[in-house]
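Data availability (excerpt). The following record was deposited with the supplementary files.
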Amino acid sequence: MHLTLEFGGGLELLCASVKKHHVDVNLKTGEDQLTMRDLLSWVRSNVIKQRPEMFMKGETVRPGILVLINDCDWELSGQLDASLSEKDEVVFISTLHGG
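Predicted structure:
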């Protein structure tokens, strides 16, 4: 499944300073849907290059990270259980800033 992932608000530093990623994620054997739960696990293993603990806590994103699926807050789509479709865009933005 082809997806576009975008990281902002400092999260791009965890991904070798690359903000936008065009990725192909394979479905698990026997699965017919890709969920955000699956995607986050894949991102941790394949996109995050350093300090994954700054991106995820347990199986979800850390508090303070806004997640948008096609410009819609993932909380309205079911969060970890939200289903993704071909060519979806998922954006991760850190809302925590130093000063």
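Summary of structural features: Strands lie at 2-8, 20-24, 34-35, 56-57, 60-61, 65-69, 72-73, 83-84, 89-94.
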